[in-house]
Amino acid sequence: MKIRLIIIIICIALMLTVVSIIESFNHSRTDEPKRADAIIMLGGGDQGRMQKAAELYHEGYSEYVIISPAMDEHYAQSKQFALDLGIPEAAIIEEEDATSTYTNATETLAIMEDRGFESALVVTSDYHLKRSKLIHDRINKNHYDGKFELTYIAALSADGEPWHEQTYAKNIWFREYVKLWGYRLGLYHFIDIPDDTDAH
């Protein structure tokens, strides 16, 4: 009887593992953009994220772009790059304290609270969208009673490639698989690592 129970448990564990691996390849389910109080551009990745944020700004989806974090030493997430893409200085809100996807969420939602914003388009790379949605929705629910309306927009790479066509696709998949499970288990502080291109 004990052997049968052990076999059943092992089979269930293997099945769940296979399902989670298959599910992990679907990173980039993007929402349809709609008018919002702010566009939140999450730092990390390449220039594709800011390019997408600028595209949404110029299409009139919002009057403000929050850069999280804004870093002069990383052109892809700098205020200067936003200006070069035609986003006016008055529209740029710089958040400078985030060090990870988790703190992206805590810092940007705090800015929304301070400024009285009610909605935002959260822009990040396609491979990063699922984890970003998980943590922003969790912080929104647990700390703000879910009052913010958040829409999640996937950005392709600066070359217009989806994540699975990029040369480092395997690294992207493995890193996001591990981090996503860490975030699901609430281990934010143990994997509080900057999400930049060097980590791919």
**CA-atom Rg in angstroms:** 18 Å
Please report which band the strand proportion falls in: under 5%, 5-15%, 15-25%, 25-35%, 35-45% or over 45%.
5-15%
CATH class: Alpha Beta
User: Total helix count?
Assistant: 6
Helicity level, as a percent range? 40-55%
Structural class, judged by helices and strands? alpha/beta
Order of helices and strands: HEHEHEHEHEH
Instruction: Describe the global form.
Output: globular
Could you tell me how far the N terminus lies from the C terminus, measured between alpha carbons in angstroms?
47 Å
The number of domains is 1
CATH superfamily: HUPs
**Main sheet record:** 5 strands, parallel
Arithmetic mean of pLDDT: 86
Strand order of the largest sheet: 3-2-1-4-5
| Overall number of strands | 5
Question: pLDDT below 50 for ≥5 consecutive residues: which ranges?
Answer: 195-200
By CATH, the topology is Rossmann fold
CATH second-level architecture: 3-Layer(aba) Sandwich
InterPro entries: Cell_Envelope_Assoc, DUF218, Rossmann-like_a/b/a_fold
Pfam families: DUF218
